[in-house]
Design goal:
By secondary structure, this protein is of the alpha+beta class. It is built from 9 helices and 6 strands; from the N terminus they run βββααββαααααβαα. The longest helix has 21 residues.
Length: 280
């Protein structure tokens, strides 16, 4: 079992600290409990767009997130899914305060730095990413078609995390600012700090850097109707060399009954598939 200390700031930020002094490095990972499921129909893609915007810098560090941390010896990235957005950085122990300061800056002071020019530039980056990763990639549109077939149009898993191009083009910087203020705040985030740092020192830094950021509005859990299983067959034609078969089923919610059982079954199936490939 991994030992940890959990603390919640007055503004709602959840903080988890794990001490591990085997290596002189510290990992900082912040999860915002927002993903594409929190978007509205017609405004898809904002959560993933913010994955890009959050790396461009905030009010007190306008030159971007990568350069200062990489110059300090760190590595960093982020990801977005239907359910969450996370940002992580691994730095030498001496750069821990820098990493936390920059996370606090973009949590509390990103909106003043979110200009129309920056918004439109990163929107074009995302549109190009979609073209490269999905639209112009063999089999790239298959998962979009599957999700749209399984989930009704008003279900939060119906649309792709990267968003629809028409929605992204119609979005405005004011839409983005409102989305940020609604979801990217201390009361809707969890911060973990793990590595070569004392728990007391880590919590003191977090309190000093994040404590003055106001808690945002409460984010209620989404309520959705269970998906009714039904058999459907789709044929998606594209310019590919070989046909491919996909099979997809709706499953119980995360941590619901039978969720763990299906995880074990899926893992066992993947292991069996690997063994079959090796045997060939």
């Amino acid at each position: 079992m991994i030992a940890f200390t959990k603390h919640t700031l007055a503004n709602g930020l959840q903080v988890i600290v794990h001490e591990d002094h085997h290596q002189p490095v510290v990992a900082v990972n912040i999860w915002y409990h927002v993903g594409s499921k929190n978007e509205a129909p017609g405004r898809s893609g904002l959560a993933h767009l913010f994955e890009h915007l959050m790396f461009k810098g905030a009010e007190h560090q306008p030159r971007g997130f990568f350069q200062p941390l990489q110059e300090a010896g760190g590595s960093l990235n982020g990801s977005t899914s239907a359910d969450r957005t996370n940002y992580w950085v691994v730095v030498p122990g001496g750069a821990t305060e820098l990493a936390l300061w920059m996370e606090a800056d973009r949590m509390g002071w990103l909106v003043p730095a979110l200009s129309v020019e920056r918004f439109e530039t990163e929107r074009e980056v995302v549109l190009n990413e979609r073209r490269q990763s999905y639209d112009n990639r063999p089999y790239g549109l298959a998962h979009f078609a599957l999700s749209e077939a399984i989930y009704p149009t008003d279900h939060p898993y119906h649309w792709p995390t990267i968003g629809y191009p028409a929605d992204l083009r119609e979005a405005t910087v004011d839409d983005a600012r409102a989305f940020f203020l609604r979801y990217y705040h201390p009361a809707n985030a969890s911060l973990t700090i793990a590595g070569d740092i004392s728990t007391d020192a880590a919590l003191a830094m977090v309190e000093r850097l994040f404590g003055e950021i106001p808690a945002g509005p409460a984010v209620d859990a989404l309520s959705t109707k269970p998906v009714t299983p039904s058999s459907r067959r789709l044929l998606l034609e594209d310019r590919v060399e070989l046909p491919r078969l996909y099979m997809m089923w709706p499953s119980p919610a995360l941590f619901a009954g039978d969720d763990a059982v299906l995880d074990v079954l899926a893992t066992s199936s993947r292991m069996a598939e690997r063994r079959a490939c090796i045997a060939r």
